[in-house]
Amino acid sequence: ADRQRDARRERERTRDVEHDRRRDVEDDLKPEPEEIDAETSLGPNASTPDILDAILTAGPPRWFRDEKGRDRRRRYRERERENDERDAALEEEEKIRKAADAAKAAAEAAKAAEEAAEAAQEAETRERAEAEEAAAAAEEAKARGDQ
Length: 147
Fold this sequence. Notes:
Blueprint lengths: L1 H28 L3 H10 L5 H10 L4 H4 L1 H80 L1
């Protein structure tokens, strides 16, 4: 359930980021008000260099003075930084989890090898005891046969 919730939140976060990026790109593609003002003041037959000169003579563009636009760009940079940090943290968690899983698997393998060695030693001890019993029984039988 936690993984599903985390996956859903990640999908929502990704969707929100993509939505914000699309909105920002659309905002960037719209002509700036200075461009529109310069085009309308110079007329429909104005050349691009004339429009650019009119924009430059009008002074700093509105987006430069615009707090809302600056805030939007700042939020965008912060969002990108947060996403990068989150991705780095997730990658680090994944590395830690993989290392823990590898350590756990190594510990289990070592325990299994130890148990196998113990079982082999027990089997060898049992075989020795059985062989000694068989030898003792053979000697006893031989001793009985000699009498």
